[in-house]
Design a protein that fits this description.
The chain is mainly α and 579 residues long. The protein has 19 helices and no strands. It has a single domain, classed as Up-down Bundle (Cytochrome C Oxidase, Chain A). 52% of the residues are buried. Bound molecules: heme-as (HAS) and copper (II) ion (CU).
């Protein structure tokens, strides 16, 4: 039985989310090609001011719309399939789907309006949209509506689990649902930061309700959210690596309890480290930055555990297929299957991108790479491959499940994932090397007239040609992927498709302590860690630059509240800490 046979209404919800995701991928990839050819001086389709509209579009459509629409599709599939039931309330389901679509359309209009000068609607604020860059209110309103949509999606899945729990008292949470709920807990905790930044500061500022904002405060609230959001993108990829990859390998998941530990570690470790994006920001004490750097190093752990579990599961599968030897078993894996090979290549690139993340996290070496072309190198190995390539590879198994159609172009799918891998290796290699010689990121004109970079290996021209070549290969790969998706959606031959059965893990939930499922405990610990990490830096930032910007007393609007709860005394104490 396929998923669409068992849950036709839920398959429709998943398909709707996936097609929204693929539409965003198509737009984002087109913008990616335009900007790559522009900044390498290979081909100029837009002028250098419009470049920033293109760059904003590429970022928002790729890392917000493409990833998060795909995420809600995967999560809806995972909860329905593992709890063997649809949501309690389908109206809530279509409400969150509608809000996410409305929000992305509004933000998209604000961005695309930047191509015309017939309106004053503009949003060239890049995907991080932090002040002092300011966008049209439509952009912020769209983002806010989109995030509310994701919050309701999470509520939908919690309600489904709650109803299932009532019918299965004392049962452990099925692993796919556990992964969805823990990821949503991390999302609720972290998205508070961006919700406050947008709703309390940036949207009122863009509407003229407040005259100014404190850029360091809105930036810090953004990065409070900005590091965990990378795991919001990564964890659906992890879910596919843990749930699908063992099955595709012909084996079973090595350890369910270890997978639960990994997702709990992301709840606890991901939010308290956002200041590692702000090592060069003034106004945050070095001591805090040093603490954040140390905390960031702990983030290696969940990824290393994942590498161990996932590769062990692959080895188990290979040996069931007759694989032998220390490494020879690798040849027994299903390398002709685009779903398997795409995810394995994505995992390999993730390892490399993860280590560049550790380099980013080193406070002193970060001074060398921050705001250089190195960072987009890291971005494209991580979101651009670990996540994006896993999503595309996972689609080769999921789309037949939610359409009931056999995959069209399986061989072409294999070409597509390998082409993506080759393109990303070429492009990011150039980005990383370019960053190390100081080529800046986020600029339409990265070369300083007449100033040739002296570099040990190759030349700027060679780096720029590599970047352009990699970008072109990625664009071709995207077109291939979207073509296969459309052909499969339209395919109505009656050929049988892969079965939906996910085999049970080798070591099940019962082998791990029940406390792992105590979600309230993990929320409480995470809240304490967040308060420890952010209370004093945020208080110091407000003390130094006010809630709404310098020159405006921190709590002008709240003098009576401040004195009553001793806020002034606390701030005086913090001020002594800073000197
Ligand atoms: Fe990052 C900047 C640090 C992971 C995305 N990161 C970014 C930006 C983005 C991003 C979008 O400390 C740019 C934001 C902007 O525009 O300014 N990042 C880290 C660290 C990790 C990390 C420590 N990043 C990610 C992931 C992302 C992502 C995942 C997206 C999905 N990142 C930073 C820092 C900056 C930064 C600074 C700021 C730079 C600056 O100055 O602006 C860690 O999570 C990495 C942990 C992982 C490893 C690898 C060890 C794991 C191994 C095995 C893994 C293999 C597996 C696969 C699991 C250390 C060896 C096996 C399975 C198979 C299928 C085979
Ligand atoms: Cu980060």
């Amino acid at each position: 039985m396929t998923f669409v046979d068992e849950y036709p209404a839920q398959a429709r919800v998943v398909r709707t989310a996936f097609w929204a995701s693929f539409a965003a991928l198509a737009l984002g990839a087109l913008f990616g090609l335009i900007q790559t050819l522009h900044r390498t001086d290979v081909l100029r389709i837009v002028d250098s001011t419009t470049y920033y509209t293109v760059l904003t579009g590429h970022g928002v459509f790729m890392v917000i719309a493409f990833t998060i629409f795909f995420l809600v599709g995967v999560f809806h599939w995972a909860v329905t399939d593992s709890l063997e039931r649809g949501p309690v309330d389908m109206r809530l389901t279509w409400t969150w789907q509608g809000l996410m679509t409305l929000g992305s359309v509004l933000a998209g209009i604000a961005i695309l309006a930047g191509f015309t000068d017939v309106t004053d609607i503009d949003a060239d604020v890049l995907f991080t949209f932090y002040a002092p860059l300011g966008a049209h209110p439509l952009f912020y309103a769209g983002l806010a509506i989109f995030i509310v949509g994701t919050w309701l999606a999470g509520a939908n899945w919690f309600r489904t689990w709650w109803a299932w729990k009532g019918d299965n008292p004392g049962a452990r949470i099925p692993l796919p649902t556990f992964m969805v709920l823990t990821t949503m807990i991390m999302w609720y905790i972290s998205s508070i930061g961006v919700a406050v930044s947008v709703l309390v500061f940036l949207l009122p500022w863009s509407l003229g309700i407040v005259d100014s904002v404190n850029p360091l405060l809105t930036r810090t609230l953004f990065w409070y959210f900005g590091h965990p959001v990378v795991y919001f993108w990564l964890l659906p990829a992890y879910l596919l690596w843990y749930i699908l990859l063992p099955k595709l390998s012909g084996g079973r998941l090595f350890s369910d309890p270890l997978a639960r530990v990994v997702f709990i570690l992301f709840i606890l470790l991901s939010t308290p480290v956002g200041i590692h994006h702000q090592y060069l920001d003034p106004g945050i004490a070095e001591g805090f930055k040093y603490i954040v750097m140390t905390n960031t190093m702990f983030l290696l752990l969940p990824s290393l555990l994942t590498a161990f579990t996932v590769v062990a599961s692959m080895e188990h599968g290979a040996r069931q297929r007759g694989g032998e030897g220390y490494f020879n078993w690798l040849t027994a894996l299903p390398w002709k299957d685009p779903a398997f090979t795409g995810m394995a290549l994505a995992g390999a690139v993730f390892a490399f991108g993860g280590f560049t993340g550790m380099i980013n996290a080193g406070m002193n070496i970060n001074y060398l790479v921050h705001n250089t072309f190195w960072v987009p190198g890291h971005i494209h190995t991580q979101v651009g491959t670990a996540v994006a390539l896993t999503f595309m590879a996972g689609s080769y198994w999921l789309i037949p499940q939610v359409t009931g159609n056999r995959l069209v172009g399986r061989g072409l799918g294999l070409v597509q994932v390998v082409l993506w891998f080759v393109g990303i290796v070429i492009m990011t290699n150039a980005m990383y090397r370019g960053g190390l010689i100081g080529i800046p990121r986020r600029t339409a004109e990265p070369r300083y007239d007449g100033f040739e970079y002296e570099i040990a290996v190759g030349s700027v021209t060679e780096i720029e040609l590599q970047t352009a070549l990699g970008g072109i290969l990625l664009f071709v790969s995207t077109v291939l992927f979207l073509g296969i998706m459309v052909a499969t959606a339209l395919n109505n031959d009656s050929e049988p498709i892969v079965d939906a059965e996910i085999p049970p893990p080798l070591s099940g939930a019962e082998d791990g302590p029940a406390i792992l499922d105590n979600l309230k405990l993990w929320v409480a610990i995470a809240a304490v860690l967040v308060i420890l990490a952010y209370a004093i830096p945020l208080a110091a930032i407000v003390d130094g630059g006010g809630l709404f910007g310098p020159g405006i007393e921190p709590f002008d609007p709240l003098p009576s509240v401040g004195s009553r709860i001793g806020l002034e005394a606390t701030l005086e104490f913090i001020a002594t800490l800073r000197h």
